[in-house]
Write a structure and sequence with these properties.
Elements: H1 2-15, E1 43-47, E2 52-55, H2 58-66, E3 82-88, E4 95-97, E5 102-105, E6 119-120, H3 123-132, E7 137-140, H4 146-152
Antiparallel strand pairs: 1-2, 1-3, 3-4, 5-6, 5-7
Helix pairs in contact: 2-4
Length: 156
């Protein structure tokens, strides 16, 4: 069943073109870093009301995803408020649907936010990265817990 859902998500991401429409002034919500400085880590959540929230890394985006109430001024009440969740494919630098991406835990390369979870559009790309940079595990979006994000942030 998971393979069918992933195939649908991946097929959808091929049919629709995603855009990371940030400027040199765009700062990430969680760490307040200018996202253009390291484009391979940029993530974005677009809300149904049209508001676009950028992040300097997938880890920061997932931190917001799990605990949006921490940033109450954004006004997110539930996952129903999310229209689109995007990450940048670490290899191609193209925006991809985060829920269909493969994330590598435990690799040697860090993001502007520190230890992170580089995303990939395909399992093969994630596996290649994992072998080259000592990744420990390849995960789907729904496998990334708030506890893992806290661990990566050094808060456990």
């Amino acid at each position: 069943m998971i393979k069918i859902v992933l195939a649908i998500v991946l097929a959808t991401s091929v049919l629709f073109s995603y855009e990371m429409d940030y400027t040199k002034e765009t700062k990430g919500l969680v760490r307040h870093l200018k996202v253009y400085k390291d484009p391979r880590w940029v993530s974005k959540i677009e809300l149904k009301n049209g508001k676009k929230i950028f992040f300097s890394s997938p880890k920061s985006m997932i931190e917001f995803y799990h605990r949006p109430g921490k940033w109450f001024d954004i006004g997110v009440k539930s996952e129903d408020d999310f229209k689109e969740i995007l990450v940048t494919d670490f290899t191609t630098l193209k925006p991809i649907n985060a829920k269909g991406a493969f994330f590598v835990y435990g690799g040697d390369i860090t993001s502007p936010a520190g230890d992170d979870l580089p995303p990939f559009a395909t399992y093969e790309a994630a596996e290649n990265y994992s072998k080259k940079y000592n990744g420990k595990r390849i995960m789907h979006f729904n496998e990334i817990s708030d506890a893992l994000i806290r661990l990566l942030n050094g808060r456990i």
